[in-house]
Amino acid sequence: SLMNTHVTMKMMHCHSGVEKGMKKGGNPIEVMGLLLGRPDPDTPKQLVVTDAFPIPIEGFETRVVADDLDAQNYMISLGESLERTRKEKIMGWYHSHPFDVGTDSHCYLSQTDINTQLLWQRSEDPRGNPFLAIVVDPLRSLAKNVPEIKAFRVYPPEYNSPVTNECPDGNIIAEEQARLEKWGSCWSRYYELKVQYFMSGSARNVMGILTQNFLWMRTLGSTPMLETENRQRYPDRVAAVAEKVKVLDVASSATAVGSGGVVGGAGRAASHHHQARGMGFGGGGGGGAAAGGGAGWQPLSSTPVPSGIAVEAVENGKEDDGGELGKAIQGVVELAEERIHGNVVQLAKKELFS
After folding, report:
1. Where are the beta strands (DSSP E) in 44-99?
2. pLDDT for 351 beyond 80
3. How many CA atoms lie within 13 A of 114 on its CB side?
4. Which tens digits make up the pLDDT trace of 137-151?
5. What is the mean pLDDT of the chain?
6. CA-CA distance, 241 to 236, in Å (whole number)?
C-alpha cells in the first residue's frame, strides 16, 4: 500500500489516547480513525491512502466503544461530507495498540480487530473497494522516535495456509510462543501489506525548507530520553528485562552444575548470543489465496510475487532471536542503545551551547 506522508502525521494523534489514559491513572486508551483513498489506477492491486480522519471512538484490547450516539452521528456526517467534497472513498480504518514498549512491535490484529476487518472486507471488497486495516504502536513510536505502523488484510475464515507456521509477514517462526508474542493469537488469520510513502512535489519542497531552517532546532531542543512518558516507563522496562535475564541465568547455572561445571553468566550469555546470531529461520513459501472476496490478493511471502502487485516480502531487519536468551539480550541492547544515544546527545548540546 502507498501512504501519503501527511497521513502518517495525522495518525500520530494516537498519542492522545496514551496521555488521556495515563492522566486518568489507568492504562492508555486505543483510538481510531478512518482512511480515505483508492486502488492505484495503474496498479489496481496497490492501495493508495491519501488522507486520515480521527473519529471520537475509544477502545480497549478486547472491545471497542462505538455505540455512542454522538460517535455514530459523527461518522455519518463525515461520510456524507466526504462523498460531496472528495473523489476518493473511505477505504480503510486504523487504530492504536498503546501497550508497553517491548522487544517486538505491537502492530498486529487481535480477534476483535479481525472480526471488524472481516465485516468491512465482506461489505466493501465486492464493490471494488478493497478495505485496509492499519495498526499504530504509539508508545514504540515515541520510544524509537519513528512512526511504528503496519498495514493488514485478513483471510476468509475457511482459508488455511499451505505453509506450516507461516506468519503474517511471510516468515516462518517455529516456536509457538514467539509467534504469539509477535503476531498475537490470531497470527494465521491475516497477512501484512508492505507500506511505502509518497509526497507531492510541493510538499517535498516545504519539507526541505523546514528541515533546513527549522527542524534542526527541534532535534537540538528535545531529548526523547528525558520526556515524561519515557522516563516513567524506562525503569519498568529495565526491571522486566532484568527479571528475564535473572530467570535464564538461574536456569542456565542449574544446567551447568548438573553437567559438572559452572560457567559465568556473562560469558555464557555472550556465547549463546553469538550462536543465536548465526541461526535464522528461512522464509516460507507463499500462500497466494484470495482474501475477503478480493481476487488476487496475496500475503507477504518469500515466494516471488507477480509484477504490479504491491504486496511484497518484507525483511524484518533483524535475525532470529535465538530463543528466550536471545530476546533478553536484545532487550538489554535496545535499552543500552537508547541510554547511550540520549547521553551522547546531551553531551553534544552541552559542548555546543555552554
Report:
1. 47-59, 64-65, 89-96
2. no
3. 20
4. 888 877 777 788 899
5. 73
6. 9
- The C-alpha cell of 66 is what? 462505538
CA distances in angstroms from 51 to 10, 54, 196, 289, listed in the order given: 8, 10, 14, 29
What own/partner pairs with CB < 8 Å and gap ≥ 24 does 86-89 have?
86/36, 86/51, 87/38, 88/36, 88/37, 88/38, 88/50, 88/51, 89/36, 89/37, 89/38, 89/129
> CA 286 to CA 314: how far, in whole Å?
13
Predicted local distance difference test score (pLDDT) of residue 74:
80
| Grid coordinates given for 6 | 501527511
Inter-residue contact 188 to 161 (CB < 8 Å): yes
Q: Which single residue is written with the C-alpha cell 560457567?
A: 263
* pTM for this model (two decimals): 0.58
pLDDT digits (tens, 9 = 90+) for 198-208: 877 777 777 67
Q: Which residues, in sequence order, are CB contacts of 324 under 8 Å at separation 6+?
A: 244, 248
